[in-house]
């Protein structure tokens, strides 16, 4: 009897959604190993197709990694949106704007802690802001993480909590502070903190950003 007798044969890919299947495979690779783990051959193996099949949709590894990065970014956005959606209702517009702003940072840090591989991959992007508003990185609201932060800052201005003359460029300062803490928590010397310490550090940082603004 042949050595491979009785083994199930790998089926051919038939459902016509190969690109999305490769992105999903790339996301799983990124979840486990970060952006370095996203390679075409591994993605095709996960998707159950021949390696050459990937080139119908992605010219090279960089193209696949970019698509996976954008989808990971969209997942960051959805986590931030979920944090905002869970806020208790309030009749005070200023309090609501403040809570939505804080939820942006809380959701961002939560995603970094829960999905460090995807978080690293989400920000494995070109060295400029050219994709910060790309629709493929948007969450359910149609906004990317960067746009959600901008909208939250605009809400602070509209309700009088943030002086209009301090609004220009505020998203870069807030983003830098929160992303810096996220990086220290998942890859730096703060990665050994206990969950309650992580939560407290995040809230204290958001306090500091809010006071600074």
Automatic annotation (TrEMBL):
Taxonomic path: Bacteria, Bacillati, Actinomycetota, Actinomycetes, Kitasatosporales
One Pfam match, by short name? TetR_N
Q: Which GO terms describe its molecular function?
A: DNA-binding transcription factor activity; transcription cis-regulatory region binding
Q: Where is the HTH tetR-type domain?
A: 16-76
Query: Where does the record locate the signal sequence feature?
Result: none
PROSITE patterns (UniProt xref):
HTH_TETR_2
DNA-binding region(s), chain positions: 39-58
Q: What is this protein called?
A: TetR/AcrR family transcriptional regulator
Alphabetically list the UniProt keywords.
DNA-binding, Transcription, Transcription regulation
